[in-house]
Amino acid sequence: MKISYNWLKDYIDINESPEEIGDALTQTGLEMEGIEHVEKIKGGLANLVVGEIKECVPHPNADKLKLTKVDAGIGELLPIVCGAPNVALGQKVIVAPVGTMIYPTEGDPFQIKKAKIRGEASEGMLCAEDEIGLGQSHAGLLILDNNLAIGTPVKDLFETGTDSVFEIGLTPNRGDATGHLGVARDLKAFYKRAMKLPAAQAKEAKIDNPIEVVVENTASCPRYSGATIRGIKVGPSPDWLQWRLRAIGLSPINNIVDITNYVMMSLGQPMHAFDADQIKGGKVIVKNLPAGTKFTTLDEEERTLHHDDLMICDEAEGMCIAGVFGGINSGIKDGTTSVFLESAYFSADSVRATAMRHTLSTDASFRYERGTDPEMTIPALHMAIDLILEIAGGYLASEYTDLYPTKIEPVQIETSFANFHRLIGIEIPNERIIEILNNLDIETSNITDSTFTATVPPYRSEVTREADLVEEVLRIYGFNNIPLEESFSAGYLASFDEKEPYKVQESLSLFLSGTGMSEIQTNSLTNPKYYQDLKLGGEPIEILNKSSEELGYMKTSPVYTALESVRHNINRRMSNLSFFEFGKVYHLKNEKYQEDEILGLYLTGNKHEESWLAESKPRDFYDLSRAGFAVLHHLRIENYTTEPAADDELFDYGLHIKFNNKVVGKLGKLKSKIAKYFDIKQEVFYAEFLWKDLLKATRLESQFSEISKYPEVRRDLSLVLDKHVSYNEIRDLAFKSEKKLLTRINVFSVYEGDKLEAGKKSYALSFYLQDTTKTLTDKVIDKVMNGLIRTFENEVGAIIRK
Questions:
Q1: Does residue 727 sit in helix, strand or coil?
Q2: Sequence-ordered alpha helix ranges (H) in 515-657
Q3: CA 322, CA 309: separation in Å to the nearest integer?
Q4: The pLDDT of residue 775
């Protein structure tokens, strides 16, 4: 939210610098995210001067150009080529000498340089109003008063004000600070200064066909105020009003709309101006329309109404979604001569639900969702009517309508000074507590040495209990003013999980980074089209308040956003990629929302960059499996099993990794159709682990054993096997046959070819044996190897090649 430094001065006297004010706002809880220094006229008309055209003749080489010589007060005439149709001898004009930075109304700034235009020298520029940011006209030069002195700085002729604009990160509980008045209230309490509140001017009403108001849903609209003004003239707003709005990022529209925006940004009270002559039946009705009713909003989008959507209607149809967005026919047009001004208090819950249903976020809904001040509807009307009568003319054609059947009363809170001291941690003088609360418009009564009653105004709807009052005092007193103890202690020690997930994740992240992988972090929101086309993961969850249709689903599979990153890098000629990501996926299961944490590994491209030392080979499944099993090894997960990933939605081929008969991970070559869907033409290898299951399986303790003094022995076997027999089967059989001396197995050759019988393959395996208590003898080694041979022959029909 943007707040203007100059605008704040309307409500409180501040002499501090913008930076000091920004610090004060942050201390009071209105966190300043930045300060932008803005100029009313970009560039401030710097270096532009008044000049007089002393010569003006046709350009010899261009019909539409003129050669001029201009006296700009620098002692010599400047030759300037000009194409303006109205340039003439003797005119006083705006001159931009060489070196001047020009800031046009539209387009990028540029610097004036010496030039030759169609063969003639030009040392400056004669300016139209749009060329220097003074307006929109480009019909010709801006002609000045002939009485102006040559060389007069142009910035002295126009108001070139500056302002400082605060960007405030407003939290949802501070609905009271959505306007300059609310922000000034905090400064009033912080600096102990008086507020400057403009007095309303008494206005006589000339009753002329006033608009009648009926509120049918008082729960969603507890208060509705309005008035009719006739005889107005719609047109551009005065310069001061346009500048105020532009400074905080709003574009001026017309005087009526600009006034409603100005009042909203001043007081935090949204308003809406209806063309009174277009209100059918001369009646405004606040009610709900039947579910399914179609309504077209100002953005020309047809919306289907929910039965809980509060509407502002006339006797024939809906005109506006209350507190959210106007209808296409409800706005002020150039020919409007009568307006009905709405200044209402709508239920925050009602507006918030409607805005979310229709994925609408407007300046009005931003304020209503946080809660506006029910006592501000009439003061806002006063301000708006004063401005309209002053700027747009006309007359008040009705008395004020103010339907407020059940007054919203201030909240009273009984509290004690002792609880303030206990919760804050130090004793703030009782008088200071009372002073801060009073400066925040929180009245205090029944004050004793130990207790008092606080009366909270309705605009501070979030202050409802004693702890909230303590927070109010603290943010003005200053959290920084609470001293820290030299030592801290806890009254009790909470129990913590033995495995701290973030530490395990950090350790694994460092390990994977050390292997050369890069961590990525991608969005949890993704394009609905991905799921509709690929259908990976469970049933998707659609976002109700979408920021865009392209980010309309929670992602059901991590590959959606990760492959976007892969594609992004490949498109920038970074094709050798190894990524890992800790992320979450979301889906519906049995009509309940479910969230799972996933660790994903992604390999694609070549193993290493091209080099004269070694041939670069593409990554393959074994590179991925090495990385995947390294994850399990780093987490000290043992006793897992693997099986082929048959008919997996992700893989052309791969493996499932099981622990306690549950699939906790899978790895393989990503299906070609998935990669091609993301315009990735190279193979992608992907591993996916259920992170919470890995955390459960990991062992915290490190296991160490003394290095054996006795040597390890290697024996090799070459086995001819049926093709369907996997290495895992051979490994499992080996360790089942020899549990004591066999320490590890390695495959150093695999052969399939015409030298073997059809349907056969050959494994060359190394078996490592070791006894930690003595040196192995040949007799013992031969006994073990013979036992392994018999097991392989009997169990899988292996043929031992000699």
A1: helix
A2: 528-534, 559-570, 621-634
A3: 8
A4: 92
- Residues 6 or more apart whose Cβ sits within 8 Å of residue 56: 66, 67, 68, 87, 88, 89
Tell me the C-alpha distance between 133 and 237, whole Å. 17
Q: How far is CA 486 from the centre of its chain?
A: 39
CB 444 within 8 A of CB 436: no
d(CA 50, CA 166): 35
Quote the CA–CA distance of 12 and 25 in Å, as a whole number: 14
Alpha-carbon distances, residue 231 vs 255, 381, 385, 393 (angstroms): 14, 18, 13, 7
Per residue in 457-471, pLDDT tens? 999 999 999 999 999
Distances (CA, A) of 507 to 504, 512, 584: 5, 9, 19
- In the CATH hierarchy, which fold is given to the domain comprising 411-476? Phenylalanyl-tRNA Synthetase; Chain B, domain 1 (3.30.56)
Tokens of 392: 């747009």
Angle formed by the axes of helices 417-424 and 430-439, nearest 10°: 90
Domain 713-801 in CATH: superfamily? Answer: Ferrodoxin-fold anticodon-binding domain (3.30.70.380)
The length of the chain, given as a count of residues:
802
**Terminal Cα-to-Cα distance of the chain (whole angstroms):** 82
Name the strands in the sheet holding 212-215, side by side, starting at the edge strand that comes first in the sequence. 212-215, 283-288, 310-313, 318-321, 325-326
What fold, for 501-697?
BirA Bifunctional Protein; domain 2 (3.30.930)
- What does the pLDDT read at residue 591? 83
Residue 70: strand pairing partners:
53, 78
User: Among candidates 595, 732, 601, which has minimal Cα distance to 654?
Assistant: 601
Burial of 11 (0-12, 13-18, 19+ CB in 10 A): buried
Residue 159: per-residue pLDDT: 81
Answer for the pair 785, 717: CB distance below 8 angstroms, yes or no. yes
- Predicted local distance difference test score (pLDDT) of residue 614: 79
Residue given tokens 């309005």 in the structure block: 226
* 664-684 CB burial, b ≥16 within 10 A, e <16: bbbbbbbbeebbeebebeebb
Given 3.50.40.10, 1.10.760.10, 3.30.590.20, 2.60.40.10, which CATH number is that of 212-403?
3.50.40.10
Helix (H) or strand (E) holding 181: helix 180-191
Q: By C-alpha distance, which of 44, 163, 41, 28 is closest to 100? A: 44
Q: Tell me how far apart the alpha carbons of residues 310 and 289 are, in angstroms, rounded to a whole number.
A: 8
- Taking each continuous run of H as one helix and of E as one strand, the counts in the chain are 19, 41
Q: Which two tokens stand for residue 527?
A: 């394009």
Give strand pairing partners of 274: 340
Q: For domain 43-156, which CATH number applies: 3.40.50.11240, 3.30.230.10, 2.40.50.140, 1.20.1260.10?
A: 2.40.50.140
At 792, list the tokens.
């392989």
Structure tokens belonging to residue 488 = 């801290």
Q: What is the DSSP letter of 618?
A: B
**pTM of the predicted protein model:** 0.66
DSSP states of 216-228: S-TTT-SEEEEEE
- Cα 211 to Cα 397: distance, rounded to the nearest angstrom: 9
At residue 596, φ and ψ (nearest 5 deg) are -125, 140
pLDDT digits (tens, 9 = 90+) for 549-591: 888 899 999 999 999 999 999 999 999 999 999 999 999 988 8
The conformation of residue 149, written as its DSSP 8-state character, comes to P
CB 125 within 8 A of CB 96: yes
Question: What is the reported pLDDT for 498?
Answer: 58
d(CA 437, CA 628): 61
Stretches where the chain sits below pLDDT 50 are none
Give the whole-angstrom CA distance, residue 472 versus residue 424: 11
275, 265 in Cβ contact below 8 A?
no
